[in-house]
Please model this.
Amino acid sequence: MPRALHDVHHLLRALLVTAMCVTVVACGGESSTKPASGSISSITLSPQTLTLGVGSSVALDVALLDAEGQPTSPRTIFWSSSDVTIARVSASGLVTALAPGAAQISATAEGKSAVANVAVAPTAVTSVQLSSVELRLTTGQRVQLSASARDASGAALSGRVVTWTVGDASIAVVDSTGAVTALAPGGTTVTATSEGRTATAAVFVTSVPVATVALTPSSTSIVEGQTTQLRAETRSSSGAVLSGRTITWASSNASVASVSSSGLVTGVSTGTTIITASSEGRSGSASVTITARPVNAIVVSPSQLSLIAGQMVALTVQVTDAQGNLLSGRPVTYRSESVGVASVSTGGTVTAVAPGTTSITVTSEGRSASVSVVVSAVPIASIRVSPSLATLTVGEDTALIATPLDASGAALAGRAIAWSSGSPSVATVSTTGVVTAVGVGSVIILAQAEGRTGSATITVNAPPIASVTVAPSTVSVDVGGTVDLAATVRDATGATVFGRAVLWSSSAPSVATVSSTGRVTAVSAGVSTITGTVDGKSGTAQITVSPTPIGTVTVAPTSSTLAIGGTVDFVATVRDVNGVVVTGRTITWTSSATAVATVSSTGRVTAASAGTSTITATVDGKSGTAQITVTPTPVGTVTVAPTSSSLAIGGTVDLVATVRDVNGAVVAGRSITWTSSATAVATVSSTGRVTAASAGTSTITATVDGKSGTAQITVTPTPVGTVTVAPTSSSLAIGGTVDLVATVRDVNGAVVAGRSITWTSSATTVATVSSTGRVTAASAGTSTITATVDGRSGTAQITVTPTPVGTVTVAATSSTLAIGGTADLVATVRDVNGVVVTGRTITWTSSATAVATVSSTGRVTAASAGTSTITATVDGRSGTAQITVTPTPIGTVTVAPASSTLDVGGTVDLVATVRDVNGAVVTGRTITWSSSAVAVAAVSSAGRVTALLPGTATVTASVDGKSGTAQVVVSTPVVQTVGRVTVSPSSATIKSTGPSNRTVQLDAVVYADSASGGSVLTNALVVWSSSAPLIASVSPTGVVTALSEGTATITATSGPKGGTSAITVVRR
Model:
């Protein structure tokens, strides 16, 4: 309702309450009294919820109702506020808002109460006031704005949130505090907002004026035709760099150097000019000096010469700059490294003087090139050898003379002659041509020089034989032995003659034989004369053969066992001192104990009585032996009495064994061995006394010489009374063990041993127990271990506690893997005591799954090159292993093409294909190229081969230790002189502007002179140049590009000759 109406209503209500004499209590216990007319059932307040601004007030209406909902007579009402700092209530129920927040107003009468919820809102912002409504800034400047939130009365409101925004952030930006920063020239607005209310300031940004312009570099020097980039930097009066300013460039002398709108200076002609850069009325300058184009390279044709002494060849020289443009009028000098081999004139004519090698150096302005020169002598046409025929006797010599001749037949002096023999076994020849007769026959002697050959035929005759002697002249040999005889042949002068065939013979081949080489072999005892014969002349040697001495006698078998009356045949083997078996010798047999065994003259042994005897075979004082053992009569049967007995534990019985031989006769004095089949049931002494040990049955056996008899023993047990287990309880860590002991007592309380004990566990997952009572802890928990004997039991309680994990270590079968490879990792888990723990769950992870993955079992699989840390985790403890994955090894490298033939200066691009060990193509590997002969052919890092000199080179591509090769052959250039050069088209018109027709391709054809056949020279070097490079430039391949209007002559030069094309450049 309107504020005035509300106040009137409040006044009337107050007067009414006064008239009714109601006293109200509020804000801590004030009250007023209404006349009582009945009991109160409920109280209501209106409104029950209200929202107020700070400082405003509202009166609450209260109604007191009886049980029928009818108003009751007035009562005393108590008013209170839950938070008097937010809202207070008067004794009349007037609520006043003090501070933002929420409070509850309560009205209470006669134990009944009602509550109204009051929300107090802050004073509303009605306007925002800025510290400035207009800002004029220069780029980069920063100004702080402030904003104040105000209420309807214009009073400032503190603590209100203000947000800042800018209209165009490319011109200026504002931060959260209202600081405005100018960025670029222009206009924008900055707005401050608080609780929906805004205020705006206009912002105008202008550029910082240019104060200075500085050029870098301030001075420079370039070669005509080259370019250099100047940089202009604008700065403010404070020295700050100003970017984005417009720069105007100018040259003080455009005929010396021009400058582009970006500051790129192009050298036009030699001289000095000033380049000026201007911006906003300010300028800076740099001095640029243009120098003449220096000589960059010298091209000499041909690059190598092969001449015959006296021959002359003129060299062609071209001087070029760094862009390959021909430079004319430059001074050229020539120098020979060895004028004794070849000289060179001031005009470049090379004259071959004498055989050898040298180089001609061509120099211009500090640059040089060289030409290799090889001078050969006048070639040999033929070689004359004298005498051409000769006859010699073995041992004689003669001198031959070889004369080299040229094509006209004239003798050539000073040439090296190589002598050789067609058959050195007949005659040899020295380096000076002296021939020496060695053996009978005919031979051709060759004289060779520079690929030419002359010859002479030599016949060698044998000298006559005068005597033959055989050595040694007398020899003594054992049967089977050998000896080598030598025959010496001499001529009439007593000189030894070699190479003659010797005929050998024996006078008694049954005693000694002789081979064709003079080797004598002794056959049997006796004497034989060995004769060596050559050309009817003979020599002899006397051979005496002796029998071979006995070396050893062996008897087989070396030992034998016989029963009395038995026989065995022994064999004696006789060998000489060389180990060869000897037959026909007399053997004497003897026995060391004839009462035990006798031996016949043939070696048959007969057993006589029990015992041992040594049998000996003797030949020529040498002997061998064998051992004979004679055994008594065999046992037939063994019987045991009594055959069966029943005993109580601890009882005994004496058994008796009766031994009979194979004939049934009782045998005394034999050793009897007693055994029990179950010693745990019953034992037996060496005399046959049986003692009962435990319940069960056992077979007692008496054995004599492999024959046996038995008796059956039955032992009855004593009943078990109790079974006790010690210790009665134990606590173990997982993996720990304890040995339990079960004590068995019979019904009399006596300890009983040897009974079978059955061990069981009530919880085998917690603890297991072995058949011996050893308990092993398996997992945390409790288990009852029971020992049972014949239905009686005893128990022990086992408590198992888990052992904390102390460490986890990881071991790798391989720490380095190729991509796709695997390695099994093993994690060893140890508890805090260092004991290995099994059965724990291991979690495997990889730090870099893109490099290597790991399975739940620890198997690592390499995925890509790199490193990864594999971690095994158990109960919060971890161990790691480092895995390095290497690229797949290279298997092969192939180079294509595999072979190439190039002319000097030619190129070919080689391609290397790399495959791994599985044959898959591998990319991205570094390929290293190399040439086996860099002087013949060079190869770039990209595989481009450039032919330099004639010859052969192997180009190798290597990757990770593997390589492939290609063969490059550089052919020898034919030395031809350039006769003329033609250029097509001979003229052309192109445009200096527009998207098309700005270039034209010129083609040059080089022809040899008439003396060289006048043919086209396909590999001739062509150098292109332009008479006006600022109007039209030309590339090293003949592409002409229009630059500005005008005319230019394009020249193609090869050697001393050139051809031209007239180029006209017009606007579009």
Observations:
- Helices lie at 3-19.
- The chain is about 0% helix and 55% strand.
- Confidence is low (pLDDT under 50) at residues 1-37.
- The radius of gyration is 65 Å.
